[in-house]
Amino acid sequence: MLIANGALAQPLAGSSDGISGLTMRVADQTVRAPNSFADLAEKVEPAVIAVVSKNAAGDKSSSDQPFQFDTPDRADPGQTDPGQDELPLPHMPDLGKAPKRTESITLGSGFFISADGYAVTNSHVVENGDTAEVRTNDGKTYSAKVVGRDALSDLALIKVDGRKDFSYVKFAAQSPRIGEWVLTVGNPFGLGGTVTAGIVSARDRTIEIGAGGDFIQIDAPINNGDSGGPSFNVDGDVIGVNSMIFSPSGGSVGVAFAIPAETVKLVIPQLKEKGSVTRGWIGAEVQSITPEMADSLGKNDLRGAIVANVKRNGPAANAGLTSGDVITSVSGQAIKNANELTKKIHAAAPGSSVQLGMLRGGKESSVNVTLGRLPDQSTVGAAQK
C-alpha cells in the first residue's frame, strides 16, 4: 500500500506511452511517476530543431542588473561578457585594431508541427530576418522562411520547403497541472539536441517582460539557445514554448517560463494565414486592483482593473471611460485583474463592441466600447492594453 496526498492508493500494473514507472490512482486521477524519460525523449527529439538566424550587427546595449530575464539568444564576433546571455564566437587575430563586427548570430530552438515543414519558434529568435537556418537532429541543415512573427506573444512560424515527411509533434489538449512532469528539448549554447526534465512549478505567471502574463513556470534547466524549444508532458504533447528565464548570471537557476499551448494554438493559425496577429484594442492603460486600492474604495472584495490613463481619441476615450474607473467585467464575464481584461480585449475582433461593467464614484454602471485594432507593438507601451 502507498500513501499519496493523504489518500490510500493501490499500485496499478503497467504503464503507458512508453513511460516506465509506477502508476497509481489517487482521487480518481491517474498519476504516473516515470523512472526514465528515455522512450519519451526518443519519441519527440526528431521533431525538435536548432534555429540559427543571421543579420547585420549593430551596437547593442547590455544590462548591468544582477537579476534579469534572458535576452535574445545572440552571439556577436569579438564580444565576450560572461555576465550576459551572450555566446561569444572566437576572437579574430589581434592586428592592432578592434575587429570589424559584420554579423550577428541568434541561436535558438524550435519544433515541427506538421510533416510539410511548418515549425514554431520564438519571435525574438528570428526577429532580424526573413529567413533562418534549421538543423534537424539527424544533422541535416535546411533553409527556412519566416512566415510570420508576433512580438507580443513572442511566437513565430517558420517553414521549410521541399519535404513532406518531417517528424512533428502536437499540442496538448489540456493545460498541465502544477507538479506534473515536464521534458524540454532544445539547443543550449548551440550544442544541438539536449533533453532536460523537471516539473511544472507554477501556472498563470504574470511578469513585467514579454507578453506579461499566463506563463507556465518550469524548473527544467533552460539556457541560452533553448528559446523557442518545446516543453512536453509525459504523453509527448507540447504544453508550452520556452521563452525566457530568470537568472542572476544568465544561466539556468531552475526558473524558466514557457508560453502556454493554449496561446500558441490561437496565434499560430493567424500567422500561417496572414503573417500577423489581429487583436482588439481598448486604448487605455490599466493596472490590477490591489487589496489596498479596494480598501480605499470601500470595497474589500473588489476585483478587476483600474484605468490609469486613457489614450486621446482612442476607443476607451470615445466611449467615455476616464482615469479612476474600475472595470469589473467584460460582456458579462467578471475579471479578476488587468491581465484577464487584456486577454479578453485582445481576443475580441477589432470593430466589435464589448460591454464593460465598471465602478465609478462608488456606483456600478456599464459602458459599451467599440474596439480598435491593437497597433504595432513597437509603438505601444507595455502597460497599454
Describe the structure.
The structure is a single chain. The model is unreliable at 1-20, 58-72, 74-99 and 378-385 (pLDDT under 50). Strand 11 (131-135) and strand 12 form a beta hairpin. The strands form 6 sheets. A 6-stranded antiparallel barrel has the order 6-9-10-13-12-11. Strands 14-15-16-19-18-17 form a 6-stranded antiparallel barrel. Strands 21, 22, 23, 24, 25 and 26 form a 6-stranded antiparallel β-sheet that branches. The chain has helices at residues 38-44, 261-274, 291-296, 315-319, 338-347, and strands at 2-4, 7-9, 11-12, 21-26, 29-34, 48-55, 68-69, 74-75, 104-112, 118-121, 131-135, 141-150, 155-160, 181-186, 194-205, 215-218, 230-232, 238-247, 256-260, 280-281, 284-288, 305-310, 326-330, 333-334, 353-360, 363-370, 372-373. The longest helix has 14 residues, at 261-274. It has 385 residues and is mostly beta strands.
Distance from first to last alpha carbon? 53 Å
| Structural class designation | mainly beta
Put simply, the count of helices is 5
Largest sheet: 6 strands, antiparallel, barrel
**Shape assignment:** globular
In short:
This protein has 385 residues and is mainly beta. It has helices spanning 38-44, 261-274, 291-296, 315-319, 338-347, and strands at residues 2-4, 7-9, 11-12, 21-26, 29-34, 48-55, 68-69, 74-75, 104-112, 118-121, 131-135, 141-150, 155-160, 181-186, 194-205, 215-218, 230-232, 238-247, 256-260, 280-281, 284-288, 305-310, 326-330, 333-334, 353-360, 363-370, 372-373.
